[in-house]
TrEMBL record:
Superkingdom assignment: Bacteria
Pfam families: CinA
Domain spans labelled CinA C-terminal: 6-97
Descriptive protein name: CinA C-terminal domain-containing protein
InterPro entries tied to this protein: CinA-like_C, CinA_C
Amino acid sequence: MSPYSGDILIGSLVSYDLRVKENTLHISEQLIEKYTAESMQVTVEMINKGKELLHADLYVACTGLLKKGGSETEEKPVGTFFYSIYYKNNFYNFRRVLKGPAFLKLRNLTHYITQDIKLIILDEKAS
């Protein structure tokens, strides 16, 4: 492993299970109950709590409804994803509704997040 790997990626946390959000990130049960685990409010809080654990230049958090059985509603159907990017003291929040099988949703979501990170960084450098 390169001694410089920490200069690029400090760490990551995947929190599919609600207990990881509550017990590791310490997202309050009240926030989750009020907005659901798959919401922009919880996504932003994931970054806020992540900033307490890791000190980095860029943070990304994502929540969403990949399949049935979550907090889906008519206004928030399966395929709805929320992601937030925190860069240079600014939050950039996104909501996407994606269609298709799970693997396609995840591939497209990853594409959107990557493109948005690039645009945010390039826009910041242009300023």
